[in-house]
Amino acid sequence: MTKNCHNDYKMKFSTDEEYPDLLKHNNHMSKALTREIYDKLRSKSTPSGFTLDDCIQTGVDNPGHPFIMTVGCVAGDEESYEVFKGLFDPVISDRHGGYKPTDKHKTDLNFENLKGGDDLDPNYVLSSRVRTGRSIKGFTLPPHNSRGERRGIERLSIEALNSLEGEFKGKYYPLKDMTEKEQEQLIADHFLFDKPISPLLLAAGMARDWPDARGIWHNDNKTFLVWVNEEDHLRVISMQKGGNMKEVFRRFCVGLKKIEEIFKKHNHGFMWNEHIGYVLTCPSNLGTGLRGGVHVKLPKLSTHPKFEEILTRLRLQKRGTGGVDTASVGGVFDISNADRLGSSEVEQVQLVVDGVKLMIEMEKKLEKGGSIDDMIPAQK
Amino acid sequence: PEKIRTKEKALLMKMNYSAEQEFPDLSKHNNHMAKVLTLDMYERLRDKETSSGFTLDDVIQTGVDNPGHPFIMTVGCVAGDEETYDVFKELLDPVIEDRHGGYKPTDKHKTDLNPENLQGGDDLDPNYVLSSRVRTGRSIHGFCLPPHCSRGERHAAFPSEGLSVLDGDLKGKYYALKNMTEEEQQQLIDDHFLFDKPVSPLLLASGMARDWPDARGIWHNDNKTFLVWVNEEDHLRVISMQKGGNMREVFTRFCTGLTKIEALFKEKGHEFMWNEHLGYVLTCPSNLGTGLRAGVHVKLPNLSKHDKFGEVLKRLRLQKRGTGGVDTAAVGGVFDISNADRLGFSEVELVQMVVDGVNLLIEMEKQLENGESIDDLIPDQK
């Protein structure tokens, strides 16, 4: 009979004594976690020993964030989403626009289904990028995994990536053994990721044993990049300068498929199910885990009073060009899809392509001193 | 094939991997844990846990995540409960021995909190000694320690109404970090009493900041000379302090206050964690024994530049820090000078070393001010 000693030990205290104080909190977890739910779930743990307190620690330790509504809970393994359904279902519903426990998610990584997207105006669009995450079945996730597991993931990843050829031929750089020269080059290319400093990630235990088994792989062309063992097992990124999102997405889909085949051969396919799609560490990344976006110059549109409304209707979000925690600089914005779950990869990239095209038209109109009132789109 | 003793889920999962696959990479590390933990030791200990579920990986996580520190040799491991020091003896005994000057697993530690046994100490020269302070930590028996304790435990271990019965010189008030008014917060900052959520990666990596600021608080007496921190790095940190050089008075208040607090806890059926081998049991192995750091802020601009300064401190069994605490450097020739030892000496003995040692350092400073040599004042190794 397997057990979780620490969790059993805590059961000596009542729910009232153990329930976290969430009065000053404002994240998805704190909105969803009632005393009743805590009471029901606190005695449980997944087969690998992940508990409710493990799921919510990051949300208890980080009451809120100035720019974004944080999720406040993470999964420690694939089973977390099942064992702690009572918490994750309402969080997922709140975060993913009312997504129901009975809903099915559609995966479409067939790049041929994307319409257009090869000609976003390069006078405005500086770069295009698509990223997603993947979790490897049979391993627990970054908040919970052991050094042995992380190294196993790294080993499999290196094998899969080193077998790639043609436009995908590349090299793996383990964080631990990087030379100074390699490090400088990766920084110059904006490829290097560092030990997380965000308290959101640190509180979830994702930085343990840093930099062991963490690394970066990229192709020789520097247009396809894989991060190993950062916030997810794998983060896969396709990118290039300019506005050819179609090409970026094609490379993304083709590369992902090739990598997946190799993992499947070792009986370690990607975590996926028909309800929540690709299973990732943070509930906000479920479904496609996809963020497709551009760095685009919108100095006039971004100061228009209807800018936010337009983005909402186009199902897009804005960020600064430094990423999720930054503000924009010089009128250049990172514009990407807001949704992750409940629509497919093709659908989400289509929203970006069509939406950015429209916003560039609006920017041009405003440059000429015209009004954009007749261009405001309906809610998608 | 390794014999699997555990039925613990998380440990079983890790047993799917060999000890080699799980053993941390310590090749760039320099802390007490990294010096001691071998692959063989890791293999023997990795499937053990205490009754509350604290494991070897829990013990060492902070040392794996923090390879070293620029100013000090860090310990690199912590205890999650009283039992940790027993279940993981094989690791912690050599760490303790290395950290505490050869203290052996069979050694006994002496506790002496009788201030009358201190000789002198009431007249350290106030032209040099700016302030005097004695601190220690205490853990409440029956509860897990800060790296591991739950929210329920943090509240149960310290009933905040408890200290309100203290009277006389010790009469005071408890300020919960969670409910402080802005005014109270500002006053505590001005008094240098307020402690904040830890930022040190050493502490964060061991899980001590979880659920902040829940059940954390500061109690101090009206006179502002006796201070208790609740649920920071230890269950309790007890501090006696005042301006000037009357270390005797500081230590007397320290002992009196501690004794009264201990009695209060005993009334509620709680004792302090203590045993005759390790003395007072605290979270960090470096604080075992007395957990006591007695020190002064003292002006030694000439002596501190003398090339024998480091050697003199060593022989006096003292250590220097900046006036901002353990992670800081000195400013303006003012140093924090305190006892280097914690375990294997009693409280009285350690404070005596500080009193006698600082008296000597001041003499040396005066001598150097007069342009004279201090060669004949250099002490023997204590």
UniProtKB/TrEMBL annotation, chain A:
PROSITE patterns: PHOSPHAGEN_KINASE (PS00112), PHOSPHAGEN_KINASE_C (PS51510), PHOSPHAGEN_KINASE_N (PS51509). One of its GO terms (biological process) is phosphocreatine biosynthetic process. GO terms for cellular component: extracellular space. CDD domains: creatine_kinase_like. Keywords: ATP-binding, Kinase, Nucleotide-binding, Transferase. Residues 124-366 form the Phosphagen kinase C-terminal domain. The keyword Nucleotide-binding applies. It holds the Pfam family ATP-gua_PtransN. Residues 10-97 form the Phosphagen kinase N-terminal domain. ATP binds at residues 127-131, 190, 235, 291-295, 319-324. Its EC number is 2.7.3.2. GO terms for molecular function: ATP binding; creatine kinase activity. Belongs to the ATP:guanido phosphotransferase family. This is creatine kinase. The lineage of its organism: Eukaryota, Metazoa, Chordata, Craniata, Vertebrata.
From TrEMBL, chain B:
Residues 99-113 have a biased composition (Basic and acidic residues). It holds the Pfam family ATP-gua_PtransN. ATP binds at residues 131-135, 192, 237, 293-297, 321-326. One of its GO terms (cellular component) is extracellular space. GO terms for biological process: phosphocreatine biosynthetic process. Residues 99-126 are annotated as: Disordered. Residues 128-368 form the Phosphagen kinase C-terminal domain. One of its GO terms (molecular function) is ATP binding. Residues 14-101 form the Phosphagen kinase N-terminal domain. The keyword Nucleotide-binding applies. Keywords: ATP-binding, Kinase, Nucleotide-binding, Transferase. It catalyses: creatine + ATP = N-phosphocreatine + ADP + H(+). The keyword Nucleotide-binding applies. It comes from the Eukaryota. PANTHER family: ARGININE OR CREATINE KINASE (PTHR11547), CREATINE KINASE B-TYPE (PTHR11547:SF23). Belongs to the ATP:guanido phosphotransferase family. This is creatine kinase. It comes from Scleropages formosus (Asian bonytongue).
